[in-house]
């Protein structure tokens, strides 16, 4: 793409945070800036840590006590999203933005309001669909049913109002087409991954630094929201530990861990778990590099777990549930297990522990695929193609 654009990327979330959606946005913004575009990221008033970027961050005013890093519905977010809309409008007008790139539903709503005032084209970047995810944040049957109805309403009316839609999975693209988005206004573009090209840190040094010991290390990274299916993972670890006691499940997350710590105690497996919280992305990468096996128990079908790309780029053997196993081919670059099959998930972990050559081969293939298939150079060119199409249609 010859023309360099001014892009307002908007997200209704804290930033930066070492979680999938934020890492996806961060690396996309970085790759766009590397291509010469001027990127302005509009987000909430806080992040989990400080880091310098090659793009500009614009935050809403810090006038509330809201500091939650996890995703999910909240009444407080109504105020935050109103402020996000105002901040986005200010950025679009002051910076003479060419295009608005909105990540997920709340950001899309803010972008549509700003478009009505400024006329700037809006891309909706779907990380998932609400009908798949929203009900998982609730526990009672009544609440889940209300969430399903609300999600159906939003999925039907909101995404098609954008000027173009990018999805991270083919399933989401097909779903949203069924909700009325024309095929020529939607494109499946898998996420990319940037990972350090330098030599991985020494595993023994990392184990010493984080007091990890000499056991087989199984790692899960990311949030602990309901759609991640952490209960299945804990049940699988209980099965694994019954026949292989020299294991530890590492959970690297920015979520509150209390519920799952209590659940692990109730299950009698707390000695097999270690929780690491409030880590930055580099620290997560260190622990991942020292681990033996990486897991993704999530069965949700509409998104693309960025954790899988991180696992692949680190060259880890992976066990993943079928619903979320995007980019994973069984016995090529990981083990894929049927959704909800706790026994098979545990057997997959035990298989990799007992067969180091298989684990090495799967990890090597995963690392190769991360570099060749999911590199950002290829993905950004596809995104630039969408930008170019939209800019031509609005001139």
Summarize the amount of helix as a percent range. 40-55%
The biggest beta sheet is recorded as: 7 strands, parallel
Order of helices and strands: EHEEHEHEHHEHEHEHEHEHEHEEHHH
How large is the share of residues in beta strands?
Answer: 15-25%
- Low-confidence region ranges: none
DSSP, total strands: 13
Short description:
This protein has 14 helices and 13 strands. It is of the alpha/beta class and 395 residues long. The model has no long low-confidence stretch (mean pLDDT 95).
Describe the 3D structure.
The chain contains 14 helices and 13 strands. The protein has 395 residues and is α/β, with parallel strands linked by helices. The chain has two domains: 6-192 and 375-393, Rossmann fold, CATH 3.40.50; 203-372, Rossmann fold. α8 links the parallel β8 and β9 (247-253). The protein starts with 5 loop residues before the first strand and ends with a helix. The model has no long low-confidence stretch (mean pLDDT 95).
Q: Could you give the topology of this structure?
A:
Blueprint: E1 6-11, H1 20-34, E2 38-43, E3 56-59, H2 76-94, E4 99-103, H3 104-118, E5 122-126, H4 130-133, H5 141-157, E6 164-167, H6 170-178, E7 186-188, H7 203-209, E8 216-221, H8 230-243, E9 247-253, H9 258-267, E10 273-277, H10 281-290, E11 293-296, H11 306-313, E12 317-321, E13 335-337, H12 342-354, H13 356-372, H14 376-393
Parallel strand pairs: 1-2, 1-4, 2-3, 4-5, 5-6, 6-7, 8-9, 8-11, 9-10, 11-12, 12-13
């Amino acid at each position: 793409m010859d023309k360099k654009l001014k892009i307002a990327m908007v997200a209704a979330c804290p930033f930066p945070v070492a979680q999938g959606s934020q890492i996806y946005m961060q690396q996309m913004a970085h790759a766009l800036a590397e291509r010469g575009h001027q990127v302005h990221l509009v987000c909430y008033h806080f992040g989990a840590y400080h880091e310098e970027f090659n793009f500009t961050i614009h935050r809403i005013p810090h006038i509330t006590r809201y500091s939650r890093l996890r995703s999910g519905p909240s009444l407080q977010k109504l105020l935050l999203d109103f402020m996000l809309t105002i901040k986005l409008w200010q950025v679009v007008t002051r910076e003479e933005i060419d295009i608005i790139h909105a990540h997920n539903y709340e950001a899309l709503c803010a972008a549509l309001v700003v478009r009505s005032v400024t006329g700037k084209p809006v891309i909706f970047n779907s990380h998932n669909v609400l009908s798949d995810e929203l009900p998982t944040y609730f526990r009672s049957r009544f609440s889940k049913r209300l969430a399903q109805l609300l999600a159906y309403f939003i999925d039907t009316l909101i995404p098609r109002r954008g000027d173009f839609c990018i999805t991270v999975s083919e399933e989401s693209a097909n779903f949203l087409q069924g909700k009325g988005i024309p095929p020529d206004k939607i494109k499946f573009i898998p996420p990319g991954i940037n990972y350090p090209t330098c030599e991985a840190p020494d595993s023994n040094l990392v184990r010493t630094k984080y007091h990890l010991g000499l056991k087989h290390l199984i790692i899960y990274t990311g949030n602990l929201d309901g759609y991640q299916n952490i209960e299945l993972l804990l049940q699988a670890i209980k099965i694994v530990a019954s026949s292989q006691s020299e294991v530890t499940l590492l959970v690297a997350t920015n979520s509150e861990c209390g519920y799952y710590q209590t659940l692990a105690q109730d299950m009698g497996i707390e000695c097999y778990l270690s929780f690491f919280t409030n880590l930055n992305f580099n620290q997560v990468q260190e622990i991942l590099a020292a681990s033996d096996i990486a897991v993704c128990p999530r069965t949700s079908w509409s998104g693309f777990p960025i954790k899988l790309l991180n696992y692949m780029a680190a060259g880890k053997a992976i066990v993943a549930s079928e619903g979320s196993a995007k980019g994973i081919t069984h016995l090529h670059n990981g083990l894929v297990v049927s959704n909800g099959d706790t026994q098979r998930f545990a057997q997959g972990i035990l298989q990799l522990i007992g067969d180091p050559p298989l684990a090495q081969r799967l990890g090597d293939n995963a690392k190769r695929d991360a570099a060749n298939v999911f590199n950002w150079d290829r993905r950004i060119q596809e995104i630039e193609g969408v930008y170019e199409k939209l800019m031509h249609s609005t001139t």
